[in-house]
Amino acid sequence: MKKTVLTVAFAFTLFAAGLHAEEAVTGKWNATADAGPQGPMELAFDLKAGAAGAVTGTMAITAMGMELPISDGKIKGKDVSFKVVIAGTPNGDMVIGYTGKLDGDTMTIATKIDGAPDQPPPMVAKRAAAAPAKK
Q: 135 in a domain, yes or no?
């Protein structure tokens, strides 16, 4: 009996740790991407963990005043992935894939632009401070 209780407690602990890691992606994240000759580009990700490891949200490109929905968002443990589609570019729709690794209030994100011969270097996103509660 004691062994069964310990096994169930251990399994619950692992499950709860997984939930915590998955919920840790929820929030606003700010990053600076290396945009090559155009110089640095400020990005803001607003992410929310959902059911069964789904991630939803938006990505804003600050300088362009664009806010784009993310698609195919997933989280498993500390690994996050999602895509953004920029429609109507001169070369057609641009699909950008992001894969990230959570580490507290920091997320290292690699970018893969479909069809691009060179890929940008990874960027580091920092969790934005929560706005103070209104009284």
A: no
Residue 109 in domain: yes
Angle at 32 between CA 38 and CA 113, to 5 degrees: 65
Domain of 59 in residue numbering reads as 2-127
User: Looking at residue 11, what is its pLDDT?
Assistant: 39
What are the tens digits of pLDDT across the range 60-86?
988 888 899 999 999 999 999 999 998
CATH of residue 54's domain is 2.40.128.120
Structurally, the chain folds into a number of domains equal to 1
Residue 89: per-residue pLDDT: 86
The answer to which of 30-34, 109-113, 129-133 has the lowest mean pLDDT is 129-133
Torsion of CA 11, 13, 19, 22, to 10 degrees: -100
Q: Which single residue is written with the structure tokens 């698609």? A: 71
In angstroms, rounded to a whole number, what is the distance separating the alpha carbons of residues 108 and 75? 14
pLDDT, mean over the chain: 83
What is the distance, to the nearest Å, from the Cα of residue 24 to the centroid of all Cα atoms in its chain?
10
* Cβ–Cβ under 8 Å, residues 100 and 74: no
- Would 132 be classed as within a structural domain? no
